[in-house]
Amino acid sequence: MSINLYQKRAHLEPILNNVFQDAEGHTVYDCHTPHTISPHRTTTISKSLSNEGREGFEYVAQIDWRTIRSSKIRFANGRLGGQEVEINKYLRKDGWSLMSGTGRNYTFTCEDGEDYTWRNGTLHLRMFRRDDLDNPVAVYTRETFTKGGHLEVFPSAQHLMDEIIVTFIYAEQKNVETTTTTVLASS
């Protein structure tokens, strides 16, 4: 059975400052980016401990957004746990999306040793195993005027939830930035 995570809030920065809830409205992940006048911001991603019968949140990862140098990512656990890694060494740019003409695709090696790719489309951001580009393992449906965005993770990838949510946040934010830049440039 798929896991669906729904964005609680729709606003100008729906990815960087949001809560991702399950179908019952329970918070599963929290994504927080303090507002600052500096272009250098840090996004913190945490997950709820309620599914483990505990209260509170556990730190999952941070993304340090940079404009001139490469952004950096820090995971709390796993093979990259405690390390600061440059994004361009972890999430490799993999061409432009032919489906949307705007955002990039990103490829990375997950905790399970497999390569995965986020492919950008007009209404969706889809994650595939690199060796099976016909069957998505996760799909983000972007928000519309009538529905908020949601991320669906299929059973074959649920063991990678933390990496999926962190890489999704990065890939979707970069898509938002690219789309905004494209719209402003064409004005």
TrEMBL record:
Residues 15-175 form the DUF6593 domain. This is DUF6593 domain-containing protein.
